[in-house]
Write a structure and sequence with these properties.
There is one protein chain. By secondary structure, the chain is mostly helical. 68% of the residues lie in helices and 0% in strands. The protein is built from nine helices and no strands. Helix 1 runs parallel beside helix 8 (184-199), helix 2 runs antiparallel to helix 4 and helix 6 packs antiparallel against helix 8 (184-199). The termini are far apart. The relative contact order is 0.14.
Length: 240
């Protein structure tokens, strides 16, 4: 029974989450573009929002890049660069821990603002609150994994997660067995992380796809207000 659950959660469930994540995002963008936004409430408690949002986004970006590079970079590249598994593990603990603490402060401010301000809570949907709490729990679990990782400074546990993540993306069979014996904290962290991908298309997180990087190369323009009539209105007045 335990073997079946492990295979279902870490062998089949990732593909369900990735399929819904990709297809759901495409379908929502195609059919519900007016909901493709983060739903700002910046007019209320603006200072707390700025601090919370900035700290959260800085921390989460570092965490995301760290996970992406750390899990999906082939092991032979680290070996070729002379980066040992132990050094990589320590760097993950230090950098991930600092980024996690910054992110924790930010998301705590955002959660406090969202839940305890009556005006903001009344304008918040179930999805707004649910995804915020999911991210909060996931962050706590991520920080708890650091405690477990301190007992595995040789990096062998990290290699298991690298092999598992890369095995999922390359459709390798029986990858679930790679994480069968890891700590329950890691398993909860992996499961909730996959679940966030599953619910991603149905929440405000879709605004991540709309990061305005194209603004960096866009030519500037200026909006000018004038009391002079436009050419179209002047022509219509002349005809009348």
């Amino acid at each position: 029974m335990n073997s079946f659950l492990n295979h279902a959660i870490f062998g089949w469930y990732p593909y369900l989450c990735l399929t819904v994540f990709i297809l759901g995002s495409v379908i929502r963008f195609d059919r519900e573009q007016y909901t493709w936004r983060s739903g700002s409430s910046q007019l209320l408690r603006r200072r707390q929002l700025i601090w919370g949002s900035n700290l959260f986004h800085v921390g989460i970006l570092v965490i995301f890049v760290g996970h992406f590079v750390g899990l999906l970079t082939p092991i032979w590249i680290f070996d070729a660069l002379g980066i040992s598994h132990g050094f990589k593990q320590i760097m993950a603990i230090v950098v991930g821990g600092l980024a996690g603490l910054v992110c924790l402060v930010g998301i705590t401010l955002l959660t406090h603002r969202r839940l305890l301000d009556p005006r903001i809570r009344r304008t918040s949907s179930f999805g707004d609150i649910a995804i915020l709490l999911l991210l909060f729990i996931q962050l706590i679990l991520g920080l708890l994994t650091i405690i477990v990782s301190l007992n595995h400074l040789d990096g062998r546990e990290m290699v298991k997660f690298m092999d598992w993540a890369q095995g999922i993306l390359t459709l390798q069979p029986n990858v679930a067995a790679l994480v069968a014996d890891v700590s329950p904290i890691f398993k909860l962290h992996l499961f909730l992380g996959m679940t966030i991908f599953l619910v991603f298309p149905f929440t405000r997180l879709v605004h991540i796809w709309s990061a305005p990087v194209w603004y960096l190369g866009r030519r500037g323009y200026q909006v000018v207000r004038t009391t002079r009539p436009s050419a179209a209105s002047a022509a219509s007045e002349g005809q009348s």
